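Q: Structure tokens for this one, please.
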Amino acid sequence: MISMASPDGFSMPAEYWQHSHTLMLWPERNDIWRNGAKPIQKTIVELSRVVSEFEPVIVGVTAQQYMHARNMLPSCVKLFEISYNDIWIRDIAPTFLVNNECIRGVDWKFNAWGGCEDGLYYPWDLDDSLAQKLLELYDFPRYAADMVLEGGAIATDGEGTLIATEQCLLNKNRNPSLSKNDIEYRLKTYLNITKVIWLKSGLMFDEAGGHIDNLCT
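A: Here is the predicted structure, written as tokens:
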């Protein structure tokens, strides 16, 4: 764990900046995905194939599913073995920060979009630890954040402005002890941004509780 991104000069880039590669996770849960996860596995195979036409794709997979995933995924897709609760790596991976050619990552706390009150599954401990595992795997320095946040809950232009919804970030099932000012302060210091644009809510029936990504990405 190191200090905070803002004084260190690291900041969150815009999502449309050039990537080195795309990270994905392999689905397998029978209690979340229908028909033994076979339909969603086929979707992940097709998605990885399409994305790999434009940038490298790396897929994390459990030990139990490794050979099955290897046989299904395109040969150009690289695999690595890791444990997790479900596949939403957009929400549970680190928020990667850049400063010239250097990369660091913010490891947010994760409670499955609402914890014991409104969370979508239990347990979520493996998902909560995935960001730290990835940062250690890549040998990137880690900022251990003291608040719950998912990657899909924030969006930035890479030039100092961040967009989020009050419905999600201010929900008491995320950070009940933090005020709006407390959360905005952490966003600014962890991500090195200067302005937060708050929308009241996200899309209706969003099971993630008002994520911004399905509005502006």
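A few notes: Strands lie at 22-25, 57-61, 78-81, 95-99, 102-109, 142-148, 155-156, 161-165, 195-199. The chain is about 30% helix and 20% strand.
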